[in-house]
Amino acid sequence: MFASMPQIDQLKSIYWEMYKDAYGIRPRGINMDSWSEDQLNLAIDGLERTIEANEIQRKEDEFDAVVKFEGRMTELGVLGAVDREMAMRWIHEAEGSQGDNEYLCFLNGLPYGYFNLIK
């Protein structure tokens, strides 16, 4: 894709894509026409650090969500759920996730596929 583009245009494209990865939206109102290659490289380095920090935060948030969810499962066991499946049914009903485990992951901030990992 980038092979036929001038270096400055390649850097602008990389910045454009990485900005979305870092902030979840495309950059608006940013005019890169006057930016040098050095300026673009510095901006790209900054975006890379932001993406890395976001990934660390995501993993920490997911860990916290797992601890909270598993605590909820334990609590439901104390309240009368005879097994994990019953507790999951109760949680699905309470969350309105209609038995969709991936949606339940989303609702609770759990890593996608979490329930496949713990079987």
Structural description of this entry:
This protein has 5 helices and no strands. The protein is mainly α and 119 residues long. It has one domain. Helix 1 runs parallel beside helix 2 (37-78).
Q: What key phrases describe this protein's structure?
A:
119 residues; mainly alpha; 70% helix
Order of helices and strands: HHHHH
The portion of residues forming beta strands comes to under 5%
The chain-level mean pLDDT equals 95
Alpha-carbon distance between the two ends: 42 Å
Indicate the structural class.
Answer: mainly alpha
**How many helices in DSSP terms?**
5
Question: How much helicity do the residues have?
Answer: 55-70%
Largest sheet: none
Shape: elongated
Using DSSP, what is the number of strands? Answer: 0
Using only C-alpha atoms, the radius of gyration works out to: 22 Å
Number of domains: 1
Query: Which regions are unreliable across 5 or more consecutive residues at pLDDT < 50?
Result: none
